[in-house]
Amino acid sequence: MNNILDKQDKDILKLSKLCKHWADHNDSHKENFIKWRNVAQEKGLESVVENLDNAIKMLDKCNEFLILANKELELE
Predict the structure, then answer these.
(1) What does the alpha-carbon distance between residue 53 and residue 51 come to, in Å, rounded to a whole number?
(2) Closest by alpha carbon to 55, among 73, 33, 28?
(3) Residue closest to 76 by CA, chosen among 12, 4, 3, 10
(4) Could you report the per-residue pLDDT of 8-52, keeping only the tens digit for each?
(5) What are the residues whose beta carbons fall under 8 Å from the beta carbon of 56, sequence distance 6 or more?
(6) Residues ≥6 apart with Cβ < 8 Å to 55
(7) How far is CA 73 from its chain centroid?
(8) Residue 20's pLDDT is what?
(9) Pair 23, 70: CB distance under 8 Å
(10) Are 55 and 33 in contact (CB under 8 A)?
């Protein structure tokens, strides 16, 4: 039974690290979204700018949930 708990603890630790990794990875994507949103803005592509702005907002929201999940896992 101790092996089951050890595996669960390892899984929880891994999931916690993955949540942090995914949030960090999303931040790198966000930087590219902003860069290319600015290019689209310079080209006058307003609907593209709007869509990229929405994607950026969703990425931020996704990161909020990943960070919350990570904090919950750290309490375990």
Answers:
(1) 5
(2) 33
(3) 12
(4) 788 999 999 999 999 999 999 999 999 999 999 999 999 999 999
(5) 30, 33, 34, 37
(6) 33
(7) 16
(8) 95
(9) yes
(10) yes
User: Is-contact 26 55, C-beta < 8 A?
Assistant: no
What 3-state class would DSSP assign to 44? coil
Please, which contacts does 26-34 make with residues 24 or more away whose CB atoms are closer than 8 Å? 26/59, 26/62, 26/63, 26/66, 27/63, 29/59, 30/56, 30/59, 30/60, 33/59
Judged by DSSP in three states, 67 sits in helix
* Per-residue tokens: 47: 């609907």
Amino acid identity of residue 31, one-letter, is: E
In the chain, where does DSSP find H-type helix? 2-42, 46-75
**Tell me, what amino acid is at 52?**
L
